[in-house]
Amino acid sequence: MDSIIAASSSSPRKYAAKEAFVTGHDGTNPFEIFILCLAIPIGFRLHSKLITTLLPLRGTSTNYWMEVVIEFATLILPNLILQTSLLPYLVGPIVLLAAMTIISFIIPTNVVRSSSTTKSSSSQTEINNKRPPFLTVHRAAVYIQTAIAILAVDFPIFPRRYCKTEVSGYGWMDLGAASFIIIAGWSSAATNATSLSSSTAVSDSISSAVTELKRAVIKCTPLVILGIIRLITIKGVEYQEHVSEYGVHWNFFFTLCCVEGCVVLWKFVKLTTRQQKYWTDASLACQLLINYQLYLSLGGGQDFIENGSRYCGHNKWLCNVYVANREGILGIIGYLGLRLMSESMARYCIWITTTKVVGEESKSSSTMAATDLHSLRQRRLFISSVFSWIVHFFLTFVLGVPNSRRSTNVSFIMWSLAQNTSTLCLIHFVMTREYSSVPAPRIFNCINRFGLPVFFISNILTGLVNLLVDTMHSSNEKALLVLSIYLGTVCGLALVLDKIKDMRLKRTG
């Protein structure tokens, strides 16, 4: 009986200790976070070299598991190691990435350059608005890096400077939510461009808008369900909460749902008014973000978010809900602006209108058309990333607007966009310049195919590990072992889901 009483009395203390462990941090600098993101393009180069050298018959059943092991060793494990304190500050990550780069150059190149037929089919695939491999790699990388961070943060092996920042600063985990918004905008831009260009009559526009509405309901329903499940689970098991992240009851699933709903309403307006220019999204985003930043800086919004009360008073439930979840509710404005900017940028950099490029086939080979498309993308991605960094540093150093994840202000929005665009630019450079014949890695393809289920499984496993393991007092060796098993499980489940879906498709086909 005494042991039960002691355990119950220690539970609040343990909860408070875990909450303090993940809160109150100031972050690091943008350069260190940029270094962490280099693990993807550098890891892909090493992965591609090993695959094309050791497994020339890629895709055969004999080489399946060897391919998975190589991918896990070159793309998954380096991301895990970089998110630990095992490496010295800055020097360690740089040395590791430099070593991976040197090894990739030392390995002899057996890759066979793509024939004109291969490149032509690749170009035609992208013209048909299917997701290009470089976008698949970036999208899956966001899922993997987020899956690592949400569990690693509970262990001492995870550097505290990588945690989410309390008020302002640059935290590695601050990028997670923003990156999901960005990749949603980049993927949605293809469908948006197609629907706008394919419907010519007003009736077609309305029909397309109704289709978008149905699609949004299908996408938002699981998000609402997941948000409710997360809320009930966290409150039920007394899992540590970072209240300054989204508020008392809010979570990112609710934010995603609200942003998606607002985007659908905006698409309906564009479809009915025939606003086909890619800069219309950017124009609305700028108006939203400028007015939101004016409210934060001049209207007392930043002070309210940081220091405001969580309670309005008795019988004021609507006000109580708002002030208790102000970070999440007001953050919708910032994330909506980010989503619109991402979609506009994608139509400029990724889903480029290929009429001019394809039209050159009558004068030159299709290989030249594909090369022109890659070059144009690379140039525009580079320009967009540099522009985003310039705007971010102008806001922070000239105008004095601190980078604040908590308020989702303009500085944070531009930093998130600059970081992701730069990473995508480097991935595109590696994949199109040297390995245009190598598709996206197998695990990455599976995670990309089942993004939401994989992310949900990651959250469930994170909760189970916290219930079964004393994460706060785990040694580095134990933490690394648990995290490796956890990542292997997540990747394994993604591969299983992919196999199951392929079997069903074969049966129905």
Q: What's the SSE blueprint?
A:
Elements: H1 2-22, E1 25-27, H2 30-37, H3 39-54, H4 64-82, H5 91-106, H6 116-127, H7 133-152, E2 165-170, H8 175-198, H9 202-237, H10 243-246, H11 252-273, H12 279-298, H13 301-307, H14 317-324, H15 326-349, H16 355-359, H17 366-398, H18 410-433, H19 442-449, H20 451-468, H21 476-508
Parallel strand pairs: 1-2
Helix pairs in contact: 3-4, 3-5, 3-18, 4-21, 6-17, 7-8, 7-18, 7-19, 7-20, 8-11, 8-15, 8-18, 9-11, 11-15, 12-15, 15-18, 17-18, 19-21, 20-21
Helix content: over 70%
Structural class: mainly alpha
Strand content: under 5%
What is the string of helix and strand elements? HEHHHHHHEHHHHHHHHHHHHHH
- C-alpha Rg, in Å? 23 Å
Question: Low-confidence stretches at least 5 residues in length (pLDDT < 50)?
Answer: 1-9, 111-129, 354-368
Count the helices. How many?
A: 21
Describe the main β-sheet briefly: 2 strands, parallel
Give the oligomeric state of the chains in this entry, treating copies of one chain as homo and distinct chains as hetero. single chain
Overall mean pLDDT stands at 83
Shape: globular
Which features characterize this protein?
509 residues, mainly alpha, two-stranded parallel sheet, 2 strands, globular, disordered N terminus
Task: Characterise the protein shown here.
This protein is mainly alpha-helical and 509 residues long. Helix content is 74%, strand content 2%. The chain is built from 21 helices and 2 strands. The protein has helices spanning 2-22, 30-37, 39-54, 64-82, 91-106, 116-127, 133-152, 175-198, 202-237, 243-246, 252-273, 279-298, 301-307, 317-324, 326-349, 355-359, 366-398, 410-433, 442-449, 451-468, 476-508; strands spanning 25-27, 165-170. Strands 1-2 form a two-stranded parallel sheet. Helix 7 runs antiparallel to helix 8 and helix 20 runs antiparallel to helix 21. The radius of gyration is 23 Å and the shape is globular. The N and C termini lie far apart (62 Å). The relative contact order is 0.14. Mean pLDDT is 83; it is low at 1-9, 111-129 and 354-368.
